[in-house]
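Bug #77: duplicate submission created two jobs. Keeping one. Sequence:
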Amino acid sequence: MPKELLLQVSPEVAANDFLLKDHVAKMLKVSKPTIQHISILKRSIDARQKTIKINLKLMVFFQGEPFIEQKIELPTYPNVKKQQEVIVVGAGPAGLFAALQLIELGLKPIVIERGKDVRGRRRDLKAINVDHLVNEDSNYCFGEGGAGTYSDGKLYTRSKKRGDIDRILHLFVGFGASPDILIEAHPHIGTNKLPQIIQDIRERIIECGGEVLFETRVTDILIKNNEINGVVTQNGDRILSNKLILATGHSARDIYELLHRKGILIEAKPFALGVRAEHPQTLIDSIQYSCDFRGDYLPPAPYSIVKQVNGRGMYSFCMCPGGVIAPCATSPGEVVTNGWSPSKRDQATANSGIVVELKLEDFKPFQKFGPLAGMEFQKTIEQKAWHLAGETQKVPAQRMIDFTQHKVSSAIPKTSYVPGTTSVELGEVFPNFLSQIMREGFTEFGKSMRGYFTNEAILHAPESRTSSPVRIPRNPETLEHLQIKGLYPCGEGAGYAGGIVSAAIDGEKCAQKIKESL
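Kept job's structure:
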């Protein structure tokens, strides 16, 4: 019978099939020719000791045993052109996976996306980076695939209770992602590869009779007797259905304003906010791997760190080894940062959001905005950063130690942030309580990760779109809005997900609940 093994090996052995087979044969005390095949089921790095090890979960097949290479196949998607229609607003992971699930269940999705398709978005991203021009409908956050398409494609989630993570990963592989995402502890597709996968998902939706409308912004939601009746677009067109999945992402402020204006129940939600810190990747490698040179068999090192400072959590968020920092504003007059990595993670720098937990009480100065108070708090910081950086997409920046000492950095080296930097005392960007927590927190980080607290690290401000500042309440059983029948708030924008995988799972759940309701 095939034998399952858990073992630790050197990075060189893990990377070489010949050496791995030799190691397994010796471990099992069998001759090497008796081993027909070794399948790697899971792989992770153990860097806790000076000698780095790779954890492997293997399935060993011996000669004479049936072995068939696993082939990932997509579900059977029927043609739904003439079936009942469901409106899906937003073509991010929540919206796209909701649409696929609707088709699988025999319903027709009409996906409405305010931004452009993946190829069209590239011109607008170039305009932000080179010309400092922000297209409010097409940018790093809005457009086909949502924020994840051009900001990394990380596929891991901290919550295992959300749903079937493996199903989402298998769907990604079925649409062209590397099978490695099925075995890695921290699966990642990469910004250079994800756009084609997203395009293939869209083509499958259309091929099966669904509709995808780009450059179509929803400006009103039609409601009759507290039940969804459809939506109105910016051209005045009405698209009618009594089922609406609202999957607009965490940055669709106009949708929150629309809901509030119409008296549809929403509520302020705590989120986290801070800076994006960039170090040389070689420095992070030396800290994490305890070595002067990483070598060919280890990937660029990530890191994860959490501290409690003055009763608040301060932690790394969306860490990007071998990555770059990107401008992610969604409106003129604001500066926002995020990070991403290509599939090979081969850039010279590592960056991570370093953010502090906010509380509802922090939004009291904005309480006149009601449930939009957190959003207005967020907006004020982004607009202040824009003014301090010269009213361009340049980002306020400061060396890490200089920030803790309230000292404007005399010279900021060129960073991966293409629009450029402006040397600023970042305490001017944030409220005093937030700046003080970060100053103390970075000092504490340096005690846990020796070498991390350095003026080689450049802080870019702000990292402000970690999650939605608004929650759209829904019934936990039916997933319908608490007040409006047929409205299904979904994904990150509704406050029920925190990344690509969890948003995709939530999209599928909403589609399933719609089918059950019918």
